[in-house]
Every structure is written in structure tokens, then in C-alpha cells.
Design a protein that fits this description.
463 residues, alpha/beta, 10-stranded mixed β-sheet, 13 helices, 21 strands, globular
Length: 463
């Protein structure tokens, strides 16, 4: 049979081969991971799980896997036979991961309930878990991490997504002793202003915004500039549930929380970040320290994208040091009080092999800290909701119809506040007024296992 992987220089310490199972194997993140691990000799998939098994085979063929390298399996015995002979088992049912041969599960379904069950099953069978499904993490991550810790396993967000990248960046800068006052990322799609046309484009949507031409520089009153920019691009949807969800994951690892439940979402140029995220007393938007936020990148067509990257704003600790850094092109606020250090990328599954090696070979997560439920990703009714309304997930960013995401400090919401991705897939039990925070009593058919996981995480934090 043709070898599954070419031999390359990318090997883990001591020649350890890391094997992984992957759920949501037909998704975009999955493709980037599978494409990358084709280039590594020390990391390989053994089980790929997706309801679309034909799609998995087609994807694998497109990536260069020989046809006989994968086999669809519908029983545990077939899974065992496939992996024992060096093939990759393709399964439609998460239950078939039970007892399969792999070191670590990469959970990428994006489904709160299915992803939770897959992760919990893996941990209880002594497999590590790299969590890509931020929806799962925002509800059950603290509880799953506690299970992992009790069993001497690793539960971690996966590099390549903004939460893990931002947590790693926080750990690096905190380890240098820097005084971090704000953490965040850019939204997924830049706002690209074309000065010749007087338009701004976001992905495949373009709107007229001639007034942006006079707003490309942060004025003497930054808040006025930011307000005018936001008004100029009001026709574009800039907030997403995915952003709030990712910041909820970061909150659990760092203790930083949102300055406001809706997030600020300033329309900012990358060069302005140290000024924009200054304290309000110093001309910025922050009301306090320890803030998480998301900004919308404003750039010209020939300027590089922030590429969904991550940033940290720090207090400058020595004026001469930071003026030296400013001269080298680093971002320092106009008054010299703050600096911004950033990584302008998140490369999806291309980066995830680093997480798999760290977890399996080193027994380490992206952060050494025990996660806690410092924040709650909750939901507010976006309009009046009648009894019996189905609250369904939709779209690329996994929004919930009729519900707006809010990221709240855990001690600022009632104990019965329902997490956003527990709301998803449920039905309203009674009328919920526009703007009301949705509680567990408002919901008729919450997934019992996911609810138990959420409550376990909150109880762990309270203890």
C-alpha cells in the first residue's frame, strides 16, 4: 500500500509519532489541518469522523491520499481493523471513536452538544483533547478541563484559532513581566477603503462611504473619529457571535473580561491600536484594565491585512526603551503611555500540529493556568420571543435566530443565566421580552448533558 505520509524534516522530540482523531472532518478547519499533516512525518490521523463520509473520502483524495489509504467503518471492529493495518478509518458516528486508536481528539464539529459528547468520551477513555469548537468550549470548557486534570490529561484550545493564539501571546508577554491592560483580536473580515471609488468593502459586500476619506487618521478627539467611522460603515455587519465566543474562551484562561457586553468593535487602523485601547482618561475607549475586545480593521487596498490576528496593549515601563521600539516600527501611543504588540495572523489547522505535539509529547496545554468561568457568554432577546420559538443555529458564524450574544462578567449575571450555546437548539418556554437576558427557566428543552457540564464548570469556579 502507498505510504500515507511523505517523510519530512518535521518531527517531534524522541521520534514520537502523534496520532489523532478528527471530528467535523469535512470542515474548512479540518482541511487545513489534514493538508498540513500530509507534510509531517510525526503527526498523522487515524480516524476521521463526519456524517458526510463520502465527502471525507473526496477531501482526502483531493489532498493526495491514495484511495486505499482510507476505509469507511461502521462498527468498532472495522475501525480497529483499519487502524491496525495503517489505514485511516472514516466514520459517521462519534460513538465509533470509542476504543479507537489515537492519542488526541481534535474536536471541530462546531456543534455544542455533539462536540461536548465527543470530547467527554475521549477524556474518559484517557485521550487528550484539542478543542477547535469554541461553541463547546464556551459552555463546557471549564468542566472538560477539570475532567482532564483529574485524569492527568490535556484539554486545550487549538493553535490556529484566535483563542489559543491570544492565550499563548498573553502567556509570553506576561512571562516577560509586561503590564498587559487589554487583549483582543481583529474581526474576521477587514474593512477595505478604496479612496478612488469612495467605497468600503467587507469580503464580497461593498457600500458607499466617501466620508471615510477624511477619517483615515485618528483625530485629536479619538472617540469622535471612531464614532464617525462607525457611522460611515453602518451598512455592514461587523459583530458576530463567533467573536464573543472566542473572547469567552480567552476569558477562561486569562481572567480578562469584556469592557462592555456587546464589545466595543472600534473601526481602527492597525497603527492606532495603542491609542484606541488607551484608558478613557488618556483618550482611548477602555474604562478599566484587564479588557478583552474585538476591532474592525480599516485599511487601504494595498495595505496588508491583520488576517484575524491578535494583539496585546501594555503599559510602557521605560520611556527610552519604548521610544527605541517606536523608532523600530513598533506601535506606541502618541503620549507614550501604551504599546501594542501583535501577531497579524491565525493560520487555522496549519498551526494546530504544534498543539498536538505539545499535548501528547510534552503533556502541556497552550496555557498552564487552570481555566475558570470568569465570564459568561449569554444571550439577550433580540426582539420579543413568543413561547414555543425555536432558537436555531444558522450561518457561518453560528448565530442564534432572535438572540444577540453578550459577554458578561460571571459575577454580573444571575446564576440561572443561560449560556449562548445552550440557548442554541432549545425552545422558549415562555414569552421573553426584547432585551431580556435569557435564563434557564426561559427554555423548555435544554440539552441535559450540556447543562450538567455548564453547571459543573460554574461550580468548579465557585469552589
Amino acid at each position: 500500500m502507498t505510504p500515507l505520509h511523505p517523510v519530512t524534516a518535521g518531527t517531534a522530540p524522541q521520534g514520537r509519532t502523534v496520532t489523532f482523531a478528527l471530528t467535523g472532518a469535512c470542515g474548512g478547519f479540518a482541511r487545513t489541518l489534514l493538508a498540513t499533516t500530509r507534510l509531517t512525518a510525526d503527526i498523522r490521523p487515524t480516524v476521521l469522523c463526519d456524517r458526510d463520509t463520502d465527502g471525507v473520502h473526496a477531501l482526502a483524495a483531493d489532498l493526495g491520499h491514495p484511495a486505499d489509504a482510507l476505509v469507511t467503518a461502521s462498527t468498532p471492529a472495522q475501525v480497529a481493523e483499519a487502524t491496525a493495518t495503517g489505514r485511516i478509518a472514516v466514520v459517521a458516528d462519534i460513538a465509533l471513536l470509542s476504543g479507537a486508536d489515537f492519542d488526541i481528539l481534535v474536536e471541530a464539529t462546531g456543534s455544542p452538544a455533539a462536540g461536548y459528547r465527543a470530547a467527554r468520551q475521549a477524556l474518559l477513555e484517557d485521550r487528550h483533547v484539542a478543542m477547535v469548537s469554541k461553541e463547546v468550549d464556551s459552555v463546557a470548557g471549564v468542566g472538560l478541563a477539570a475532567i482532564a486534570a483529574d485524569r492527568g490529561l490535556v484539554y486545550t484550545p487549538a493553535e490556529g484559532d484566535q483563542p489559543a493564539n491570544l492565550i499563548l501571546w498573553y502567556e509570553r508577554l506576561a512571562g516577560l513581566g509586561l503590564d498587559i491592560v487589554a487583549l483582543g483580536k481583529s474581526s474576521e473580515y477587514d474593512l477595505v477603503y478604496d479612496p478612488e471609488q469612495g467605497t468600503v468593502s467587507q469580503l464580497d459586500t461593498t457600500v458607499a462611504a466617501p466620508e471615510l476619506g477624511a477619517l483615515l487618521r485618528l483625530g485629536d478627539d479619538p472617540s469622535a473619529t471612531l464614532a464617525a467611522r462607525a457611522e460611515a460603515v453602518r451598512g455592514l455587519k461587523r459583530s458576530a457571535a463567533a467573536d464573543h465566543c472566542e473572547m469567552a474562551v480567552v476569558a477562561s484562561a486569562t481572567g480578562f473580561t469584556a469592557d462592555r457586553p456587546e464589545l466595543h468593535y472600534p473601526v481602527a487602523r492597525v497603527s492606532e491600536l495603542a491609542d484606541v485601547y488607551a484608558h478613557r482618561d488618556h483618550g482611548g475607549i477602555r474604562e478599566r484594565d484587564g479588557v478583552l475586545d474585538v476591532f474592525s480593521v480599516l485599511r487601504l487596498p494595498d495595505e496588508a491585512s491583520f488576517a484575524g490576528g491578535v494583539f496585546a496593549v501594555v503599559r510602557t515601563h521605560d520611556a527610552q526603551t519604548w521610544e527605541t521600539l517606536r523608532a523600530k516600527g513598533h506601535l506606541v501611543s502618541r503620549d507614550g503611555r501604551y504599546g501594542c504588540l501583535y501577531l497579524p495572523y491565525h493560520a487555522m489547522g496549519v498551526e494546530t500540529p504544534a498543539t498536538l505535539r505539545r499535548a501528547v509529547v510534552e503533556g502541556a496545554a497552550v496555557s498552564p493556568r487552570t481555566p475558570h468561568q470568569y465570564a459568561v457568554l449569554a444571550g439577550r432577546a433580540d426582539g420579543d420571543l413568543a413561547p414555543g420559538t425555536e432558537l436555531t443555529l444558522y450561518g457561518h458564524h453560528h448565530e442564534v435566530r432572535g438572540v444577540a450574544p453578550v459577554l458578561c462578567d460571571a459575577d454580573a449575571v444571575p446564576a440561572d443565566a443561560a449560556p449562548f450555546y445552550l440557548v442554541a437548539g432549545s425552545t422558549t418556554a415562555r414569552e421573553i421580552a426584547d432585551g431580556s437576558l435569557i435564563t434557564l427557566d426561559d427554555l423548555a428543552d435544554v440539552d441535559p448533558e450540556l447543562l450538567a457540564a455548564w453547571q459543573a464548570g460554574r461550580d468548579t469556579t465557585a469552589a
